[in-house]
User: Fold this.
Amino acid sequence: MNDQPRDPLLLDHEADGIKELDNNLPRWWVWLFYLSIAFAVFYMAYYHVFRKGDLQISAFDKEWAIGEKIKSDAIGKFEANLTSLTPSKDPDVLAQGLQTYTTSCAPCHRPDGGGQVGPNLCDDYWGHGSNYVDTVKTIITGVPEKGMLTWRGVLKPSEIQSVASYIFTLRGTSPPNPKPREDQAPKDTGPNPFE
Assistant:
């Protein structure tokens, strides 16, 4: 039998030679534990029982609605000033337009603008109006019946203007093997519906 006095802080059991020390937790840790329990009860009552606060999905939906309103207001202001728009000649704007065109437009209109699924953008026979404002309007509203989706709310107004400016630089170029012309020759398209 072991005659050594027993340490009062050691418990009677051991596992693999390891003995457990019966030591009180620090008071600050115990109070922190109690506060976390109180917070959990308060949180559950506030958000789930009494429904005073928004859950994550409700908060997201509200923030999303605010963001959509900001986008809608920006595009509305942009559309209100369409008649005063002219194509930009700024190299930075045209570079941004080329980037947007390459990622969003080239799959249907080809990188050189010669037309593939979408029409040829290099000739003077455009089915939805041949001036710059018509191009901007077509980008905004799209042509769903022909497969072109609307870019309203997808592209920022500055991106729409830059890609339309870039497309305007394609006019008169001669890509190899262009898509045949549209059946509508250039003409005055009348008053702009956004005026």
User: Anything to note?
Assistant: The longest helix spans residues 56-80. Residues 79-170 form a domain with the Cytochrome Bc1 Complex; Chain D, domain 2 fold (CATH 1.10.760.10). The two ends are 104 Å apart (CA to CA). The chain is about 45% helix and 5% strand.
